[in-house]
From TrEMBL:
Residues 199-264 form the Pyruvate ferredoxin oxidoreductase beta subunit C-terminal domain. This is 2-oxoacid:ferredoxin oxidoreductase subunit beta. Its cofactor is thiamine diphosphate; Mg(2+); [4Fe-4S] cluster. GO terms for molecular function: iron-sulfur cluster binding; metal ion binding; oxidoreductase activity, acting on the aldehyde or oxo group of donors, iron-sulfur protein as acceptor; thiamine pyrophosphate binding. Keywords: Iron, Iron-sulfur, Magnesium, Metal-binding, Oxidoreductase, Thiamine pyrophosphate. The keyword Oxidoreductase applies. It comes from the Bacteria. Residues 48-195 form the Thiamine pyrophosphate enzyme TPP-binding domain. NCBIfam families: PorB_KorB. GO terms for biological process: cellular respiration.
Amino acid sequence: MATLKDFRNNIKPNWCPGCGDFSVQAAIQRAAANVGLEPEQLAVVSGIGCSGRISGYINAYGLHGVHGRSLPIAQGLKMANRELTVVAAGGDGDGFAIGMGHTVHAIRRNINITYIVMDNQIYGLTKGQTSPRSAEGFKTKSTPSGSIESALSPLEVALAAGATFIAQSFSSNLKQLTALIEEGMKHEGFSFINVFSPCVTFNKVNTYEWFKDNIVDLEETPDYDASNRVAAMTKIMETKSLVTGLIYQDKSKKSYEDMVTGFKPEGLAKQNIQITEQEFEKL
Ligand code: SF4
Ligand code: MG
C-alpha cells in the first residue's frame, strides 16, 4: 500500500519560500495516501498561475492545462476513466475569473471530482494584480487607488450553483486541510474546497496573521449541521465568507456519471473503443 512518500517526486517546487501552496501540495499527498490510493489511481489537473504548478510536484498522473480550463479537462478525464480519483487545482484568478463559467457548471453537474482552489486574493504569477477575490479598496499595480469592485464570495456562488460538497480551509491548518481533502475525495459528487493560501510576496494585506485573526472555524460551533443548506448560507454570510471547515454536504444527490446513460459504468477506458485513422478523419 502506498504511503506519503510514494506521492512525492524529485521536483523542487519553485514557489517563493513561505507560499501557502506548499501546504496544499502536502495535504493532497497526505490525503491520497490516507484514503488508500496508489499514485497511478490519482490524477491532478491544474490551471495557469503559481498554484497551477502543483500538478508537476505530485507523483501521480498530472496535467498542467490551459488558463481557467482545469475543470473541463478534469471532467473529461473522469468520464473516460472513472476508476481514477481526479483532483483539479488552481488559483482564484484561474477559477473565479477566466474559469468561472466552468466552475459554476462543473459544480451543478456534480461529476465525482475534487476541485481545490488556492485562494490568495491576488494574481501572484503576473506579479500582483487585483483578482476577483481581492477586497474593495485593495491596492495593487492594477488598482493603485484601491479596487472599486466587490470581492466575489465563491462559497455563496457554489451553494447557489447547487454544490453537494463545500469546504474551506487555510494553508496553516494542514490537519484540517488534509482531512477535508480526504472527505472531498470520498464524496460521491463534485467537491469544492477553497483554501486560503497566502501569497507572501505580493499580498501584504491577507497575510497568515490576517487569516489567523479573521477566520471563523466551524470547530467553534459544535452543533453546526453541514447538511442544512440554509444554515450554510447563513454561516457564510455571517462570517463574510471567512468560515473554515466542512460547510455543506448533500449525500443524497447522485453524481453525474452515475446518472448518465449510454456509457458502461466503468467508463470509456475499459470499453476498449478503437477508432481507425479514416474514421477519425470523418469526425
Ligand atoms: Fe506563492 Fe505569491 Fe510566490 Fe506565487 S508569487 S509562488 S503565489 S508567494
Ligand atoms: Mg491568486
